[in-house]
Specification:
This protein is an alpha/beta fold and 424 residues long. Helix content is 27%, strand content 25%. The strands form 4 sheets. A 6-stranded antiparallel beta sheet has the order 4-3-6-1-2-5, covered by helices on one side. The protein has a 6-stranded parallel beta sheet with strand order 10-9-8-7-11-12, sandwiched between helices. A 5-stranded mixed beta sheet has the order 14-13-19-15-17. Helix 7 links the parallel strand 11 (290-294) and strand 12 (317-320). It is globular, with a radius of gyration of 24 Å. Residues 28-63 and 325-335 have low confidence and may be disordered. Bound molecules: flavin-adenine dinucleotide and FE2/S2 (inorganic) cluster.
């Protein structure tokens, strides 16, 4: 055996040893996390008195809640950022009755009448906006970002509803609003520390959760990670600063991915870069948390799986997307392939069409085939696209937020499981 071969064998042995050590380290860390998880679970069961008490879904739905849409008046309007792109709207019910509480993280659904830029006719537009403050009996608050047309948009219009809010909704305007709903909200049956992660306008449900926990005065630790490009996009800056100096259980990390020259690290923001798993690992202590995530698609697609890879139990991760199904999961992709061709029949339109597995949802499929169906949020939240299933089954791409009547489905977040007949 030559010296060269011997050196290679020794090198290979060292590399194998190193790999084994790294794997062992990772395994131990996962075990540590699980053990801690169990300990905390045990400890929590004996200290339930610390649990935050919030209205149950039942109490939100009963009492003085309402069915369908109710009229609200805009009481106050406030610009929240230097870009003047985010406005908060404070809404009071026209009937003057006290408002039902909601679970922080839930949203309101609005039915607007907006002039169609093409036909110049008024058309109904349904959109959802998260409640951005703690529950109060006399007002709800939503904070809305203006969606401008993309650069070099070649005729693509700006966002319909957000432009309407920014340009036409003023103090005194009346709006039709559905009662708060949504399955993304603070879970209050365990007094776990909470990690809130908001990217861009995805900060709104986090503000509601944060304000609620702090206003109740319960000593539950909260870490908020807020990711934006720079100081021009920073909303509720002074409010967040005030909370940091008032509440020792609130820990804030504002991340600017592209700070301006006048944005000062340590003053205006705490971290240069994105909110990513490296940042969470470097700043969070090793313990069990509830994670709440809402942000743009790239953030959600990278962060949620990264949390799971880190060892966080999926039951401790809650996330919401503001647009069409932003989180593509492996099983979701797998569900798209079918062994047999599938036919979708739209009974009222008298059309039977072969399903195209490349299409994301039954709503896109219906629209592509000129079937007239209603839609709003395109994210399973508002319920506008709810349609009766006369035969067959659907698969959901994500958990529906809207309540679905028996025998119905939400077209915007589902695909056919087998041959399907829809009442459309
Ligand atoms: C549960 C939930 C909570 C939400 N909470 C909030 C919140 O708190 N704050 C908030 O600001 N938003 C929130 N949203 C998002 C909000 O509901 C709207 O989706 C958002 O305001 C955009 O609506 P829009 O009518 O302005 O834009 P749309 O008119 O729906 O347009 C959306 C995008 O499509 C582009 N577009 C329009 N027409 C075309 C076309 N023909 N071809 C190609 N592109 C086109 C537009 O330029 C725009 O970029 C939430 C959404 C959900 C589902
Ligand atoms: S369009 Fe809102 S639930 Fe489908």
């Amino acid at each position: 055996m030559t010296t060269g071969v011997l050196a290679l064998i020794i090198l290979a042995a060292i590399l194998i040893q190193l790999a084994v050590l790294i794997l062992l380290g990772l395994y131990r860390r996962r075990r540590q996390y699980r053990d801690l998880d169990l300990q905390i679970n045990k400890a929590e069961k004996t200290s339930r008195s610390n649990t935050l008490t919030l209205p149950s879904t039942e109490s939100v739905k009963s009492g003085y809640s309402w069915e369908g849409f109710k009229e609200f008046m805009v009481q106050r309007r406030e610009l929240e950022d230097k870009n003047n792109a985010v406005s908060s709207f404070y809404l009071a019910p026209v009937d003057g009755k006290p408002l039902p509480a909601f679970k922080p993280g839930q949203f309101l659904t609005f039915k607007l009448k907006i002039k169609d830029p093409d036909s110049q006719q008024l058309k109904p537009v349904v959109r959802c906006y998260s409640l951005s403050d703690a529950p109060h009996p006399d007002y709800y608050r939503v904070s809305i970002k203006r969606i401008t047309a993309p650069d070099n948009s070649a005729g693509i219009p700006p966002g319909l509803s957000s432009s309407f809010f920014h340009d036409q909704v003023q103090v005194g305007s009346r709006l039709l609003v559905k009662a708060p709903s949504g399955h993304f909200h603070l879970i209050d049956d365990e007094a776990l520390p909470v990690v809130l992660i908001g990217g861009g306008i995805g900060i709104t449900p986090m503000l509601s959760i944060l304000n609620t926990i702090l206003e109740t005065g319960i000593n539950r630790e909260i870490w908020l990670y807020y990711g934006i490009s720079n100081g021009n996009e920073h909303i509720m800056k002074q409010h967040l600063k005030n909370l940091v100096s008032t509440y020792p259980n609130f820990h804030l990390t504002v991340c600017y991915s592209a700070p301006n020259e006048n944005d000062i690290l340590g003053v205006d923001f705490q971290h240069k870069g994105w909110v990513d798993i490296q940042l969470l690992r470097a700043t969070l202590k090793l313990m069990r948390y509830q994670f709440y995530v809402c942000g743009p698609r790239p953030m959600m697609e990278s962060l949620v799986p990264a949390l799971q890879d880190w060892g966080v139990d999926s039951h401790d991760i809650y996330y919401e997307s503001f647009g069409p199904a932003s989180l593509k999961q492996a099983e979701k992709k797998a569900s798209k392939t079918h062994s047999q061709p599938i036919t979708v029949t739209f009974s009222r339109s008298g059309k039977s069409i072969l399903w195209n597995p490349a299409i994301d949802s039954l709503l896109d499929f219906a629209e592509a085939n000129d079937i007239d169906v209603e839609s709003g949020c395109r994210a399973g939240s508002c319920g506008s696209c709810q349609t009766e299933v006369k035969a067959g089954e659907v698969t959901y791409n994500q958990q529906p937020d809207a309540d679905i009547a028996p025998g119905h489905c939400l077209l915007c977040i589902s695909t056919p499981k087998n041959n399907l007949t829809l009442d459309a």
